[in-house]
Task: inverse folding
């Protein structure tokens, strides 16, 4: 009789432990946070999804409005740079959100003054110097105030010769950026930068006095 009683007691204790274990497992499994939105009791956490959507913007170039040089004929060859501070910089804005890279290209028609012309080859060039037409340094690149930009990786070789033509002048790269760089608003050059944009004209000593004009074209193209 004692043995039967002991067996019944042990069996009952086992059932109680098993039931307790099952209850704890169920409680742990159902202790999930509720979805936020409806009212939830104090002390109960809720969850909600958070999403940021960024829409692709555009790529733009803000350039100078004009270029200008002036000097006096003195019987010597002259290398002239544009001394206007506003002409020593331009702005590239890559807001595409894809980082395709970009390049700025420039072309120019022949510099003419009536029937007088400057040579198409060797007359017009650009670099990052206001002291030497043949300097091999390029313009500085900095982030525009308020822009956390990625500075461009520029592979342009300077100085860049811009060969003019009376019609259909050929455009050349004057600054570029590898893919994945040049994102945001990037200032190229600047009058107070270590290397402003230098626009140079080589005027030979036999050039006749006059006002020489040319049409300069600038464009930004997506892609390195």
Result:
């Amino acid at each position: 009789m004692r043995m039967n009683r002991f067996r019944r007691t042990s069996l009952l204790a086992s059932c109680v432990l098993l039931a307790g274990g099952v209850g704890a497992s169920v409680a742990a499994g159902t202790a999930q946070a509720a979805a936020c939105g409806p009212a939830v009791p104090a002390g109960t956490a809720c969850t909600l999804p958070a999403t940021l959507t960024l829409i692709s913007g555009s790529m733009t170039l803000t350039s100078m409005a004009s270029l200008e040089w002036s000097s006096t004929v003195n019987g010597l060859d002259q290398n002239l740079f544009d001394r206007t501070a506003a002409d020593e910089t331009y702005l590239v804005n890559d807001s595409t959100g894809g980082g395709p890279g970009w390049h700025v290209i420039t072309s120019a028609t022949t510099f003419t003054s009536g029937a007088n012309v400057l040579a198409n080859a060797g007359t017009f060039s650009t670099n990052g110097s206001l002291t030497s037409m043949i300097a091999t340094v390029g313009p500085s690149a900095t982030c525009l105030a308020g822009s956390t930009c990625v500075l461009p990786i520029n592979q342009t070789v300077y100085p860049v010769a811009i060969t003019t033509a009376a019609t259909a002048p050929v455009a050349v790269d004057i600054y570029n950026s590898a893919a994945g760089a040049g994102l945001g608003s990037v200032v190229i050059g600047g009058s107070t930068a270590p290397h402003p944009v230098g626009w140079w004209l080589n005027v030979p000593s036999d050039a006749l006095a006059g006002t020489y004009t040319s049409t300069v074209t600038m464009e930004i193209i997506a892609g390195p």
Observations:
- Confidence is low (pLDDT under 50) at residues 5-30.
- The helical segments are 2-30.
- DSSP finds one helix and 15 strands in the chain.
